[in-house]
Amino acid sequence: MLKVRDLQIPLTHSTDGLSFQLQSGEILGVIGKNSSGKSELLECLATPSLARSGSVSINNVDALQESLKYRHLIGYLPNPVIIEPHLTGIEFLELISGSYELSPKDRTEQILKLAEELGCHSEMFTLIERLSNSTKQKIAFIATLLHSPRVLFLDEPWQFLDWSGQEAVTQIIKNQQVEGRVVVISSNDLDRLEELTKQYLVLDEGATLAMGTLTELANSTRSKSKSLPDIWRSMEKIGHLRE
């Protein structure tokens, strides 16, 4: 279980912190306008010491009191991604995986398996600085998954990817869900989010504007449609979302 209680991210001017709980196999979609605090929230979930106040825990492991253990329980894909340009893809991923308890054989097999699923196997032995943004995104996504974390924080996981790449990432996230992972995804791709998630957190200036299922969000905005893009348009129309 991921438990977030009264978390105040640096951006917020609200005195009310963000609070939610997610059980095994649940996915939460985080949406909001640009600069609403989506990336800041995921950054604070990955590194709770950056938050102004509040607490984050996974299966009763407190992120501040047991920070090393907490770090091994999570996988974080930031936006923009952070990777070493002067290494090849395989060198970078083996460097990252070396900090976890994986044998050299197991980590190489895991890297190549994920690279195959994402369609970037042939680029693994090329210097990262020579790779496309799409392949860099895939390599960063692989790095997030290597140690089989219990909770994933994914910031714009489909960025730069073509349709086949987006499909591959979506399928991997679905597989993670089936295996009982908790996933928090921030994205402006509402159609992709709707394919994966049943519950949503809508942010505005770092605070909770709304939270619930599509039906609950549709009812609160009087949207006749229960599609996420239509609900978003209804929020904009009635002035829920500030510029």
**Based on the structure given, which CATH architecture is correct?**
3-Layer(aba) Sandwich
Strand percentage lies at 15-25%
Order of helices and strands: EEEHEEHEHHHEHEHEEHH
Mean pLDDT: 92
Tally the beta strands.
10
Largest sheet: 6 strands, mixed
Q: What spatial order of strands do you see in the largest sheet? A: 6-7-8-3-9-10
Oligomer: single chain
Helix coverage percent: 25-40%
Overall shape: globular
Figure out the total of helices: 9
Fourth-level CATH superfamily: P-loop containing nucleotide triphosphate hydrolases
CATH topology: Rossmann fold
Q: What is the radius of gyration computed over CA atoms, rounded to a whole number of angstroms?
A: 18 Å
Q: Under the CATH scheme, which class?
A: Alpha Beta
Stretches where pLDDT is under 50 for at least 5 consecutive residues are: none
The figure for the number of domains is 1
Q: If you had to describe this structure to a student in words, what would you say it looks like?
A:
- The chain is α/β, with parallel strands linked by helices and 243 residues long.
- It has a single domain, classed as P-loop containing nucleotide triphosphate hydrolases (Rossmann fold), CATH 3.40.50.
- Helices cover 39% and strands 21% of the residues.
- It is built from 9 helices and 10 strands.
- A 6-stranded mixed β-sheet has the order 6-7-8-3-9-10, with helices on both faces. The protein has a 4-stranded antiparallel β-sheet with strand order 2-1-4-5, covered by helices on one side.
- A hairpin with a 2-residue loop joins strand 4 (53-58) and strand 5.
- It is globular.
- The mean pLDDT is 92.
